[in-house]
Amino acid sequence: MIAGSLPGLLGVALFAAAGAGLAELAPALRRLPLPRRLAYAYLLGVCWVGGALYAASHLFALPLRRPAILALAAAPILGGALARWRRRPRAVVVPARRRSALDTATAAVVACVSLAVFAQALSEPLDDWDGRMTWSTQAAYLRHEGTVLPTALARGRWFVTHPQYPLLLPLGQVAVQELAGAGRDEQPFRALYAAFYPVLLLVVWDGARRRAGARAAALAVLAVAPVPLLSFVGEGRATGAYSDLPLACLYGAGLLLLLRPRLRPLDGLAAGLLLAGAALAKNEGAFLAAAALLLAALARAGPFRRLRTSRGRHRLARRLAPVAAATVPVVAALLLLASWRAGVPNRHDEGYAALLDPVRLPVEAVARLPVLVPIALERTFLSATWGTYWWMGVVVLAAGWRGARRRRGAVLAWAAAAPLAVGWLAYSVHWAPAYVAGVTWERLLLQGLVPAAVLLAAALRGCLARAAT
Amino acid sequence: MPPLQPLFARVALALIAAHLAVALPLALGRSAKRLVAAARQLDETPAEARRRVFGAAYVAAIEEARRAIPVDGIYLLVDAQSGEEGAQDWVRFDLAPRRALFLGKLADLPPPAKLKRRLPGGARVVVLATGNRKPPRVLDRASFVRSLEGRSE
User: Fold this and answer.
1) What CA–CA distance (Å, rounded) separates B129 from A292?
2) Which chain A residue shows the shortest CA-CA distance from B95?
3) Partners of B76 in the beta sheet?
């Protein structure tokens, strides 16, 4: 099956190339070293190609076929090439930084496990739960009719689970399958999901280096890389076709980009594109995108006493400009999603909006804790899927919290907790909270893993410094 | 006696060292196994891979259903599992983009005479999902209703 699925790697390359074009336009991204720039580029490419196909199919009835996919991917590639050519970079020779042995070992581990993830994804037929029940079945309907409103979704009589789930990843699947000219049982699209494994680790590495330095960053990546849930085991792994790992990457990368200093509005737009992708990847992505914008705004605003002077207000406006720019693609994505959903009758879905009772919600949120907390603890420390990651993580965070707090630790902690808060709300209104918590809690932890791992790196730095005293 | 904070930091570092010592060899071992397995399956066709994972009987039944229902066509889907194994979703995935009209659980269906009148028009084929990796049964409408009559007797 590997030979027939290899064209999936071309799809991955196309997403990365389209995103590399976009990254050329964002000053904060184009300065990154190549591997980390490629990770952001891949995410941007998935958002651009998937989002543009979503909008073009829904608004202009553009067929989801190879010419449209290639044209939409070519636009940012040409734009990026043009921007690079216009800048005409001077031939400055930057002395190559010597890589530490720890960095080399970390890169080797990431490369080795990534290779195995790709090999497994491209050699085994898809056999996970949601990947088959929802995401890949939706992709088959989309591809067959070449539209985001195929008959199966648009007419209420057909049996489709979660028909209103956002379609970014199914559209990514369609793009890869179309580019590969794949038959029904060929699955080159699996490479799309496998790529999120190294991408998540590279995004963590980038964010952690910035906040905690090279040594703690490499250790944090080494700690996350072997987590079985990320690669081979459980629901949500990179060798399956769930949307949780992509959402984790998009949410984490968008947030970390917005937390960088000295951002330009174009950097904000790039972060906004990532968060728009999060909103189009899963239902809870809309909440996480909003949480990322809010947390970034609070972190960038600084103390409110600065508002007393006009200089302070001016400075604040400049610091918040990237967040404002990031809001534009997110709002556009939410409007697109609402417009598309208007044409899709909902069925075979929990329908959380209808379950929401603002009076009962706070009561149930507390009353259900005795049922939910043991399940959450059991799933968090489950060795089959998380290994010893959270056992170690909790102690490191406790020991290094003082150091982490100085490095935006509170923002990262809130960001890691945001998916859990969304889940808690859902469990508070669901008719079978214990069941739904049991099957989703680990994926919520996964969705917040990027900020959690960067926080771990910051705490590790604190531990390393303190242990040396 | 060292102060408490550096001691706590050293415990945390020891814990991360233990985590890496346990988790990294496991992850690398798992990766090596996956690479060896993938290398063995290099020339496998998608059909062979599906037979290996889901079983020859399941794949043959899906192929039969695909032949019986045109790719643009529709079919009636029945959940005939004894438990909740998601079989109706796996069958629907394997038959997509063919569209399914879901009749519900086999045990909950109305008596054959009533069901015959209520069966939606247009769909000639009925697919019964029998369990995870168990071959679905593929019947035409009349045979399906007859099979229910036989059962009710």
Assistant:
1) 43
2) A137
3) B101, B126
